[in-house]
Design a protein that fits this description.
binds manganese (II) ion, alpha/beta, two-stranded antiparallel ribbon, about 270 residues, binds phosphoenolpyruvate
Length: about 270
């Protein structure tokens, strides 16, 4: 049987709206913010800086599934309260990662629920997220095929929640000079195979702050519906993923260029 998330089952693009942001309508939705919420000062400095740009959605992790159990695990509920404050100050809709469905009530004021790469095949979590109404951004596991990725999206979709966003965030290869290899093929391939919006995360996809800008341009050129970028007010001091985070100045350059690439790719050549 064909998957409900496939183009065969539904020809038209799925368009998702949260606050003033739209994902999947052909425009570029820029999601930006710190990997992890660390303090009120840190989050508000980043959020207020981003609010002066064309950022559409504010990100910030509060529940962090880390490789080492000794690493900072996020601020939990206190972090989500800070995200709520930042949303009220900036007017930006928000996204944050959920790792346990038992935490769902803490996410009342969060607009999009993120499922991290480590949980892409947590089918119990996916099914539970399919039974609630908030849009879900599903990240591809670093060792998962495109077909497994779509099968995971189906777990959410078939339960009744059709607001699913696919996020390519790099896969593990033999290369060791980057954290992951961003799979650029995945962007047009997912757009072809599925009607769901597709976004790219060059921060985790490279793991190198200096590569975030050029890889972002490739993602936009490849036709993605959005970008998710880790931005920190002081990347050197970040408690998580500082090496792949860019600062606000660097982000301004990135969003400027991304908007130009967006115009170019959406330009209707037949009108020349
Ligand atoms: C993140 O977005 O901060 C994150 C943990 O990403 P991933 O699940 O892709 O590793
Ligand atoms: Mn991160």
């Amino acid at each position: 049987m064909g998957l409900l998330v496939s183009r065969e089952e539904k020809k038209e693009d799925t368009v998702i709206r949260v606050g003033n942001a739209t994902i999947g309508d052909g425009s570029l939705c820029i999601i930006a913010g710190p990997c992890t919420i660390e303090s009120r000062g840190q989050l508000e400095e980043v959020a207020e800086g981003l609010a002066k740009t064309s950022t559409n959605i504010l990100r910030g992790g509060a529940f962090k599934p880390r490789t080492s159990s000794y690493s900072f695990q996020g601020m939990g509920k206190d972090g989500l309260d800070l995200l709520s404050r930042a949303k009220a100050i900036t007017g930006l809709p928000t996204i944050s990662e959920i790792v346990d469905i038992a935490d769902l009530s803490l996410f009342d004021d969060v607009d999009i629920l993120q499922v991290g790469a480590k949980n892409m095949q947590n089918y119990t979590l996916l099914k539970a997220l399919g039974k609630q109404e908030k849009p879900v951004l599903l990240k591809r596991g670093w060792a998962n095929t495109i077909s497994e990725f779509l099968e995971s999206a189906e777990y959410i979709y078939r339960e009744g929640n059709h607001n699913v966003i696919l996020c390519e965030r790099g896969i593990r290869t033999f290369e060791t000079s980057t954290r992951n290899s961003f799979d650029i093929n995945a962007i047009p391939l997912l757009k072809e195979k599925s009607h769901l919006p597709v976004i790219g995360d060059p921060s985790h996809g490279t793991g190198v702050s200096g590569l975030v800008l050029p890889v972002s341009m490739a993602i936009v050129a490849a036709g993605a519906d959005g970008l998710m970028i880790e931005v920190h007010n002081n990347p050197e001091c970040a408690l998580c993923d500082g090496f792949q985070s860019i600062n606000l100045e660097e982000f301004k350059l990135l969003e400027n260029r991304a908007r130009i690439y967006e115009k170019i790719r959406n330009f209707n050549c037949t009108s020349i």
